[in-house]
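Researcher: Please translate sequence to structure tokens.
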Amino acid sequence: MASPRQLDKRRKAVRNIRKITRTMELIATARFKRAMDRAEAATAYTNRITALVADLAHSGLEVSHPLLETRKETRRMVLLVLTGNRGLCGGYNSSVQRLGQGRLNELKREAAVSLEVSGKRGIGSFRFRDIEPDETYTHFEDRPTFDEVDLLASRYLDLFSAGQIDRLDVAYTRFQSASRQLPVVETLLPLSGLEAADSQDKGPAMASRYEFLPSAESILEEIVPTSFKVKLFKCFLDAAVSEQIARMVAMKRATENADEMIRSLSMAYNRARQSRITGELLEVIGGAEALST
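Model: Translation complete:
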């Protein structure tokens, strides 16, 4: 059995670790609340602009946009994987990395794939598997801004419009609620998934809902690229809030485990200390009896 001094040192070390995990839990909770507010606000806006583009596409008019058209032949694809810059968030980074790895293997069998990774954890994980990303991003923190994402989205739009890429997939963790986050891979380019986002068949009658000025084509020229940028921004927001939730849960469990360990060490310390005291008393009694004889 360990000595009382060793047990006491171990207990103090666990208490210090508990202070760190509890502090990280509180920080993650505060960041999660701010990130969740941004994600929920972006969800409403994203759903509305997606429904608007879907309405225009189903308006009964002869309207089209290059971003809405599926390429007949897919020769060049881009896979963007969104992970975090920091760890200590449970299986958040590993789950989305495994999902991205699986999609990368699938796409490689179909066409040439360019891998782009956001987050130091994902970059390190792919490099550990001898996979060097073509592009890496480490400046997206827990509060990504639209201007930062807009630069990336504009580059994808230029590449897609120029025919240099035919498809863009994004692997990230989708935020559904505070208790449910799901790693997914979505195809953002081309934006042919707008019809799937709005499952109801609106038909030609939807044309009466809008009056186009100057024309539906000119409106699509503005709305469709904006819709893509907003959808990509929503992916980054979902990833940020999901990371904070995962870190909050992981640190909460670590704190609870530390509490349990402290209780166990305290009981062991008390037993060892009582045993030591009992042994010393027996030695004193034994010595006194030896002197009296």
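Researcher: Any highlights?
Model: The beta strands are 76-82, 112-118, 135-137, 167-177, 180-189.
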